[in-house]
């Protein structure tokens, strides 16, 4: 685009207004992440005093990139607007909670669900029902009120809760395959089967670890 058409086609005031509204929205999602992250950290702290261990190994947060927001809306046949982002996207604000044991995942899910300022909008249990790829994780979309100077805004946050093993597999598989269109390469079926085999090995290890933990009992009793 040359300078002439830039001045002709772009309405700077409108562009600046849209950019400001988008920045505002992203700020609101950042605040929602902070609210939910604090709840998780409180539960982890309390648990560590009671049971002498931390159920949460680490927490990672992310805001979806503008390009990914745009691409997802386009896949859904929707135009890029603040209203469509708020209404149709559940994962602009994302929190990944990586836990020690499988039962820690369900402990967190139960306690987050019980909090009366949290509304659970959607649940996908890819632990009980793994994806065909072998992917396992517990997904939860929650709505939380965030208090701004202009009032209370309900905000959506997506939680992905998984064990260290599930996270290890998902992170490496993401690098190897996810979204890279490697379906086209020769030997893809074999790679796919190997990834499923690794997912099964991780699942077996998680199950064994959980069994040992059940045998040991609560760590505070030792
Ligand atoms: P990114 O960069 O991780 O954010 P919904 O959001 O509920 O409308 P959607 O988008 O189909 O529906 O959600 P789904 O399938 O429950 O979860 C999508 C997210 O889960 C992905 O996010 C990944 O983070 C993760 N995921 C799902 N399937 C796989 C898989 O087979 N392998 C790996 N490694 N991760 C997976 P995004 O948006 O794709 O990307």
Could you explain how this protein is built, in words?
The chain has 222 residues and is of the alpha+beta class. It contains seven helices and five strands, in the order ααβααβαβββαα. The protein has helices at residues 3-9, 12-51, 66-75, 82-88, 102-114, 164-176, 188-216; strands spanning 56-63, 93-99, 119-125, 138-148, 151-163. It has a five-stranded mixed beta sheet with strand order 1-2-5-4-3. Strand 4 (138-148) and strand 5 form a beta hairpin. The longest helix is centred in the first third of the chain and has 40 residues, at 12-51. It is flat and about 65 Å long. Mean pLDDT is 92; it is low at 1-7. The site of ligand 0O2 has 12 residues, from helix 6.
Helicity level: 40-55%
SSE order: HHEHHEHEEEHH
The helix/strand class is alpha+beta
Taking strands numbered 1, 2, ... along the chain, how are they ordered across the largest sheet? 1-2-5-4-3
Distance between the termini: 71 Å
Number of helices: 7
Overall outline = flat
What's the total number of strands? 5
Largest sheet: 5 strands, mixed
In oligomeric terms, what are we looking at?
single chain
Ligand inventory reads: ligand 0O2
